[in-house]
Amino acid sequence: MSFVILAFISVLIKCPIMALPTCLPLESKALYVPSLTSLAETLNEGLKSNFAEVSVEVVECPDLTQEPFTLASKGLGGNPKIIELGGNPYLLPLVHKEKVYDLKNIAKLVGSDPAFIIGAGAGPNPYIGVNCEGIYNLNISNGTVNQLSRISKIDKNDDKSEQITLPNTETRAALMANLLITEGKPGPVIKVHVKRRIGEDNFITTIRKAIEKKYQDKNVGMGGVFVLKEGKAKQHVMRDFSKTPIENEEQLNNWLKFYNMSAPLIAVGTLVNADMDLDLRVQHFHSFSHHGEAGHYHYDTTPETAEYLGYFTLGENIYRIDRPINTHSWGRD
Ligand SMILES: *[C@@H]1O[C@H](CO)[C@@H](O)[C@H](O)[C@H]1NC(C)=O
Ligand SMILES: *[C@@H]1O[C@H](CO)[C@@H](O)[C@H](O)[C@H]1NC(C)=O
Ligand SMILES: *[C@@H]1O[C@H](CO)[C@@H](O)[C@H](O)[C@H]1NC(C)=O
Ligand SMILES: [Zn+2]
C-alpha cells in the first residue's frame, strides 16, 4: 500500500467533507514482520537480562475485553497498523493548541473500519478544559463508537490525579499519540509474562532493546497491552499547559507531576526499533486502572514484586501523520 493510494484516500475522503483537521500530512512505510516464533525466541532470550522469570510464547489472543485487560475489542488481529500522530514539538517548548485530531478521521485516513484503537497520547483538552493524558481504548465500526478511553488530569489543588472515562461522543486526541489500530479480531499474538525485575530497564525498554538487537537493519513496530499485576509504577500526569516556555528536561520534569501508582495498571501503546527517518517516538505506553489512577508509564518502583503480563502484535505498516516540521528530540522518555 503506497503513499500515493493513501494520499488519494486522504484527498478523496478527508479534505472535502470535514472542515476539522483539513488535509493532514501523511507518510507511510511497510514494516518488516518477523515470524512470531522468531520474535518469541528473541524475547525469551533478551528479557532474561532484566527479569528473573521470563516466559514468552505465541498464543491465540485471549478475549481482551475480559479482566484483567478490559479493552474495547476482543483481539489484536486484522490489519495491524502502527500510528504516530503529531509529536512532542507540539507541546514543548510551548503548546500548539490548534493540534486536535478526531480519531474517527484518523481511522478513515489509514483506511481502518472496523477500527480498534489503543495507545498513548495527550488527551482532548478542549473536552475537559485542561491539558491531560489520553489512554486510548475504543472501537469504531461503520461510524458507531464504543469509547472506553480514559483521560487523566491533575485536580484543582495540584495534588491527586483524576481519571475520567470519555463518552462515545468524544473521540478526539491532542498534540501527539502513539496508536495501534487493528480490526479487533482474534488471531495469534505474542504473550509476554515476566516476574521480578533484576535490571535497570523498564518492561517495554527491555523488549525494545531485544528487538533492536535482533532486527538491526529492519523496521519493526509492535503494539499491544500489558498489565502490571503486582507492585507500583512511576507514572506522570501532565499539568495544564505552561505559560512560559519549557526549554529542557529539568524544566519538563518540574512541570510534569510524578506519582507512584498501584497495580493493577493496564497499559496500552506502541514501540518501534528505529526512527525509520520518520522522527518517531520509539516507545510510549499509558496505563489506566479500575481504582482511579492513570498516567504515562515510566517504570515499576518495586522490582522484587513486579509482575507483567502482556499481549502484543506486530504492525504491518507504519503511518506518520502530521509530523512536526520544526522538531527536536528531547522530552520523549
Ligand atoms: C466494540 O466495542 C464493544 C464494546 O466493548 C464490543 O461489544 C464490540 O464487539 C466491539 N466491536 C468490535 C468491532 O470490536
Ligand atoms: C452503516 O451505517 C449506515 C448509516 O448509518 C447504514 O445505512 C448501513 O446499513 C450500515 N452498514 C452496515 C454494514 O452496518
Ligand atoms: C515513589 O517511590 C520511591 C521509592 O519507593 C520514592 O523514592 C519516591 O519518592 C516516590 N515518589 C513519589 C512521587 O511519591
Ligand atoms: Zn505519554
From TrEMBL:
Residues 42-321 form the DUF1907 domain. GO terms for cellular component: nucleus. Coiled coil: none annotated. Pfam families: DUF1907. Its main location: nucleus. It comes from the Eukaryota. Residues 1-19 form the signal peptide. Keywords: Hydrolase, Metal-binding, Nucleus, Signal, Zinc. It is found in: Nucleus. InterPro entries: C11orf54_DUF1907. SMART domains: DUF1907 (SM01168). Monomer. This is DUF1907 domain-containing protein. It comes from Phaedon cochleariae.
